[in-house]
Write a structure and sequence with these properties.
248 residues; single chain; alpha+beta
Length: 248
């Protein structure tokens, strides 16, 4: 199933990579007494970091700040918490911080889609949802992913959300969810039409210079859609602007 697209800001990734060394260095400079309240419950050599994101009025990423802190009971919608290891080298610290940010971003994209369009997987059977959700075991989102991979990550997250909803479904909510799924399918048809019109407006020579995005074994209309999304992302330079980093 094809969902709406989303993008991870390149500027945020650069800011996270730059800040990871400061977090790693600061954690290693703490005394044992200072570290104890920041460690995870299993006692792993990792320090808790509260990450706060700020956005412009149009929703674009603006800045990020970090604070060494234990895991909170609840975080604001623009925050996430991650445990960053400090005994396995800088590279591992950087990867753990990025994974926390990527997980937060996919979850936020799923939440936004549900708020805008309702339960878009409402018409799927539970075994289908479990098959989609099971991909979470081997899908780890990366900002460099193309639109097809982003779609798979979002689909797995939405399947998890829908499975949770099924556990407390009433007959009325099941009917409403099915209707929301139908309405979303109609909404998606507009993007399919835009992609088809764009593709057929191109000369053969123009298609040869599109950003490379090979898709094998997919129907022609899906190949066109994902190529269209990849073209839009590449053309806009999504997330190219730098943000601002604050370390407290």
């Amino acid at each position: 199933m094809i969902l709406t697209d989303f993008h991870f800001p390149e500027a945020l990734e650069r800011d996270l990579i730059g800040a990871a060394f400061d977090i790693y260095d600061k954690a290693r400079s703490l005394t044992g007494a200072q570290l104890v309240p920041l460690l995870p419950e299993d006692g792993t050599a990792a320090v808790g970091v509260q990450v706060s994101l700020c956005f412009h009025e149009n929703g674009d990423y603006a800045s990020v700040s970090f604070e060494l802190a234990p895991a909170p009971d609840e975080s604001p919608a623009t925050d996430f918490h991650a445990f960053v290891p400090f005994s396995q080298g800088y590279y591992r610290a950087k990867q753990q911080l990025l994974e926390g940010a990527h997980h937060y971003w996919v979850h936020s994209a799923a939440k936004q889609l549900l708020e805008c369009h309702g339960r878009v997987l409402g018409k799927h059977q539970i075994d289908e949802l479990e098959a989609m959700e099971s991909k979470r075991r081997y899908i780890s989102f990366r900002s460099a992913y193309g639109p097809l991979e982003r779609n798979e990550c979002l689909l797995a997250e939405l399947a998890r959300c829908e499975i949770d909803e099924r556990e407390q479904d009433s007959s009325h909510s099941k009917i409403a969810a099915f209707e929301e799924a139908r309405n979303f399918a109609k909404f998606r048809e507009e993007e399919d039409a835009d992609a088809a019109n764009w593709w057929h407006s191109l000369a053969s020579a123009d298609r040869e210079y599109l950003p490379g995005y090979p898709i094998c074994g997919f129907p022609e209309d899906q190949k066109i859609l994902f190529t269209y999304r990849n073209y839009l992302t590449t053309r806009s330079g999504s997330g190219a602007r730098s943000g601002r980093v604050v370390m407290s």
